[in-house]
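> call design_seq(struct)
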């Protein structure tokens, strides 16, 4: 800008001053640290006479970048991975939690081609009221809820003619194995579900329940409070 104004003959400005102001603005925007940019540039160049321009450019740069990018170059990768700890206690606790610690795997699976009679035998041994329907490759196709078949599960006439694939429903959402807990909780809030299946490339891994998350959340919160 200084060089352009000088070439046009409009003003004779020292290009070095504009360069220093640009350095401060760049640091303030990339590092999200306007004060560091102001004092560092002023100190290393002994340019305290430029204090006001440095303050102005750094402030404008910081305000502008915060609108487009809320994370600095140092925290952006952590934020994408969901591993960035913040002063927000709820988000900090969720960041410390890991999905593999809350997955429950004691659900009995069933194949879509199996009959209602076979499903009833599985129900008699199960401790859960949700039954994942998977194919021979382990891919999750749907789920059977005990409440949905309660009215027909004692009808012997349907045991051999009714297949599981006609009884299953699609879960309101699927949780991917690589998702962070903040994303998991967002899916629970959006769907209103109490249990959601966890999959990896479509393969069934288990379920996550709100009660399990709240239990682990409480333990992590107590641990943080003690520290």
């Amino acid at each position: 800008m200084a060089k352009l104004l000088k070439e046009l003959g409009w003003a004779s400005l020292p290009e070095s001053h504009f360069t220093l102001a640009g350095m401060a603005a760049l640091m303030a925007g990339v590092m999200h640290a306007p004060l560091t940019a102001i004092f560092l540039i002023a100190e290393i160049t002994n340019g305290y006479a430029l204090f006001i321009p440095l303050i102005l450019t750094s402030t404008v740069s910081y305000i502008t970048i915060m609108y487009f990018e809320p994370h600095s170059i140092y925290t952006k990768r952590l934020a994408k991975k969901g591993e960035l700890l913040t002063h927000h206690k709820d988000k900090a606790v969720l960041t410390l939690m890991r999905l593999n610690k809350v997955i429950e795997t004691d659900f009995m699976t069933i194949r879509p081609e199996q009959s209602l009679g076979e499903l009833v035998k599985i129900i008699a041994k199960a401790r859960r009221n949700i039954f994942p329907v998977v194919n021979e490759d382990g891919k999750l196709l749907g789920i059977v809820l005990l409440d949905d078949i309660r009215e027909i599960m004692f009808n012997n006439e349907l045991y051999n003619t009714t297949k599981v694939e006609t009884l299953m429903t699609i879960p309101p959402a699927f949780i991917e194995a690589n998702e962070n807990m903040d994303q998991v909780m967002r899916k629970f809030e959006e769907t209103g579900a109490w249990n959601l299946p966890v999959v990896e490339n479509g393969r069934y891994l288990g379920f996550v329940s709100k009660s399990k998350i709240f239990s682990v959340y409480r333990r992590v919160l107590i641990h943080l409070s003690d520290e």
